[in-house]
Amino acid sequence: MGEYRTERVGNLIRQIISALVLEGRVKDPRVNTFLSITRVQVSRDLSYADVYVSDIRAGAHLGRNVEGLQNAAGFIQARLGEAMRIRKIPRLRFHADPSIREGFDMIKKIEDLTAAENPSTGGGAENPSK
User: Fold this and answer.
1) Which whole number is the average pLDDT over 43-49?
2) Hey, how many other C-beta atoms are within 10 angstroms of the C-beta on 57?
3) Cα(124)–Cα(92) distance, rounded to whole angstroms?
4) What are phi and psi of 10, to 5 degrees?
5) Is the pLDDT at 58 greater than 70, yes or no?
6) Is 27 exposed, middle or buried (0-12, 13-18, 19+ CB in 10 A)?
7) Which of 30-34, 54-58, 102-106, 120-124 is modeled with the greatest confidence?
8) What sign does the CA torsion over 28, 101, 47, 33 have?
9) Do the domain assignments include residue 21?
10) Rounded mean pLDDT of the chain?
11) Which of 28, 43, 97, 98 could staple 54 via S-S, CB 3.0–4.6 A?
């Protein structure tokens, strides 16, 4: 099976799961609507799909959200079966992906460093060695 096809299937799975989470159709109380499906990697034979989940909120319990999604995997797979026109729906495996939160933290650190280097933006000698 071509790499392009597995990529398309992964993108479709990501869109459908994102819509289910955003609309609140996943009824598990551990799953909140602030979750973001960052990527989906589908195996070549379409037997498994690794779904990576992130949360932008500080202090979010990403592990609990992933457990809730894994608990609702059967429901989500059934919705995928209704929406997709493929012979075999992949088994879903959810994984925590802290990349979005880490990205926000990195940007904050860079802004803090920039603010510390330039405490005053006007007047004065910016480089005293010249």
Assistant:
1) 93
2) 13
3) 59
4) -60, -40
5) no
6) exposed
7) 30-34
8) positive
9) yes
10) 86
11) 97
Q: At residue 102, what is the residue type?
A: E
| Contact between 35 and 55 (Cβ < 8 Å) | yes
| Domain contains 98 | yes
Nearest to 28 by CA among 86, 81, 70: 70
Q: Does any domain span residue 124?
A: no
Asked if residue 83 has pLDDT above 60, the reply is yes
CATH number of residue 28's parent domain = 3.30.300.20
Torsion over CA: 47, 33, 67, 56 (sign): positive
Measured distance CA(26)–CA(103) in Å, rounded: 27
Q: Which one-letter amino acid corresponds to residue 23?
A: E
Report pLDDT for 39.
94
Cα gap 69→79, rounded to integer Å: 13
Quote the CA–CA distance of 75 and 81 in Å, as a whole number.
10
Residue found under tokens 């880490």: 102
Structural domain that includes position 62: 3-116
Starting at the edge strand found earlier in the chain, the sheet holding 35-42 runs 35-42, 48-55, 91-96
Structure tokens at 121: 């933006």
